[in-house]
Amino acid sequence: MKRLIRQGDRSDQVADVQARLRALGYMVDDDSGDFGASTQLALKTFQQHRGLIADGIVGPDSWDQLVEAGWRLGDRVLYMKYPAFRGDDVQTLQNRLNALGFDAGMEDGILGVDTDRAVKSFQREYGVAEDGIVGPHTTIALTGLRIDRPGTAAELREDLRRAEHGGIHQALIAIDPGHGADDSGGLSEGLSEADLCWDLASRLAERLTRFGARVRFTRPETENPDSTTRAKRANQISADLFISLHFNAHSKPSAEGSSTYYWRTSRGGLQLAELIQDELTRLGLKDCRSHPGSFAILRETRMPAVLVEPAYLTSPEDAKRLDDPEFRTAVADSLTSAIRRYFESK
Ligand SMILES: [Zn+2]
């Protein structure tokens, strides 16, 4: 692209721009090759959607984006090369890989080292030739699983992990005590969220190991790693299950009860979240239900993961109960029962 294309222009290049905009679903009423108001409006909308300056002029950036936006996964064979493949097909690839738990890095539409590594891990796990080439086989494996039956690949992953173990015995469980170090989390009535999380994590670990599970914490008592680090630690040890412990807080003291979050496409996460709610509410805690959550810790962990908030620190009722070590033991027992039921359900 050698020069800018703008309103008033008449050329084959304008016709090309119009054809690309139409293919992307933008309405263009001007005659072919005739850059009128309609073409400009479509272009401005496109520029806005792509985070470009919406000046209605086709410069090099807009042209690149028009070309990149046109690629759909499966249109061409993708692999790592220099200069790298760029396009929406690459971004879709990265998005699918990340959703399946293969770390493709930033979803930037550029096929680099991270994406290449993720493609190869995916191929290895799904029995496709591990050549890093995203051709028909790999595309079918990736898209067939996701498009035809949404969630299937993630479910398959989770089922495989559970089938390998069978029961809680020998299962490797990552416990993530929220906050820590200089971050005390919520504070109420002399209770620090970080201390409570640590206390509950210790009680839970003790109970889980009693049933033959192996347990790892995502942090030592004196550290407060970020979510990505916590998730990475669980991923590195290939934990079978991830449970993040927090306590809730609200400006209204009347807010009370238990809630559990899971990553929205994780069937295992949902199942465990519901079991946890079932167990915790048996203790008389109010049922604030399970919810899909988009926390980084749920997204970046590759195994079924939940974030549980058993009670509100800011509720006088809940806080009074939490103050009692026996109640905290009961909470740990409930979480253990939920985890055992989860592993037994397969
Ligand atoms: Zn918290």
Characterization of the model:
- The structure is a single chain.
- This protein has about 350 residues and is of the alpha/beta class.
- A 6-stranded mixed β-sheet has the order 4-1-5-8-6-7.
- About 45% of the residues are buried.
- It has helices at about 10-25, 35-50, 60-70, 90-100, 115-125, 135-150, 150-165, 195-210, 225-235, 265-280, 295-300, 315-320, 325-345; strands at about 170-175, 185-190, 190, 215, 240-245, 260-265, 285-295, 305-310.
- α10 packs across α13 (about 325-345).
- It is elongated and about 80 Å long.
- The chain has 13 helices and 8 strands.
- The protein folds into 3 domains: about 10-70, Orthogonal Bundle (Muramoyl-pentapeptide Carboxypeptidase, domain 1), CATH 1.10.101.10; about 90-150, Orthogonal Bundle (Muramoyl-pentapeptide Carboxypeptidase, domain 1); about 165-345, 3-Layer(aba) Sandwich (Aminopeptidase), CATH 3.40.630.
- Residues about 145-150 have low confidence and may be disordered.
- The protein binds zinc ion.
